[in-house]
């Protein structure tokens, strides 16, 4: 799921990665909005707020929204920097540092007090946006720009285009490719929706501790990937 890249990466690898991490993004999206009343998985809205505040000459508030944009950018930069570093040292664990850092940041928010969230909502938003930048860049890199999990605008656009193309591209190979892509994007959207619903429902039960669910999903993904790798190595030794 995390280990394969390039020509070695299959549709099933992307499907598993997309379903799990879109669920995580859905949790962070809704729980973040409920916890600190900020968008925490994408930056499109923040850019609009940034432009609005600058047009009103509210420069301090505008710079705050700019910091949200830069936090996501910094997360994406850090993610790929860590991946490229590990590619030159131990390719087997190239994904571990970005995912581990994401788990740490989301976990820190989950374990913060309600008073901290209420007093420093902008700090929490910056932390979550950085974490989502980490995730989005890693997924984009691993999937060769096929999968993105932290926002839906591009997904709905691509899904609409591909659904319309099903009426025009009738060759078996074309239909197969389009249906696979439609399935992948539908899985991502469904995962995001499911994560959002889970994040909203459980937030009203356990408040910011709901972020621990996102951490648990990321942890299970790492464990699963590690177990798969060990099983492959064991089979090779036995053969």
Proportion of residues in helical segments: over 70%
Number of domain modules: 1
What general outline do the C-alpha atoms trace? globular
**End-to-end C-alpha gap:** 24 Å
Order of helices and strands: HHHHHHHHH
Strand content: under 5%
As a whole number of angstroms, the C-alpha radius of gyration is: 19 Å
List low-pLDDT spans: none
Oligomer: single chain
Q: Which sheet architecture does the biggest sheet show?
A: none
Structural class, from helix and strand content?
A: mainly alpha
Overall pLDDT: 90
Total beta-strand segments: 0
Number of H/I helices: 9
Question: What keyword list fits this structure?
Answer:
single chain, 239 residues, mainly alpha, 9 helices, globular
Descriptive overview:
Helix 2 (44-55) packs antiparallel against helix 3, helix 4 packs antiparallel against helix 6 and helix 7 (153-165) packs antiparallel against helix 8. The protein has one domain (6-35, 71-233). The mean pLDDT is 90. It has helices at residues 11-36, 44-55, 59-87, 96-110, 114-119, 121-142, 153-165, 172-206, 211-238. By secondary structure, the protein is an all-alpha fold.
Concise summary:
With 239 residues, the protein is mostly helical. The protein is built from nine helices and no strands. The chain has one domain.
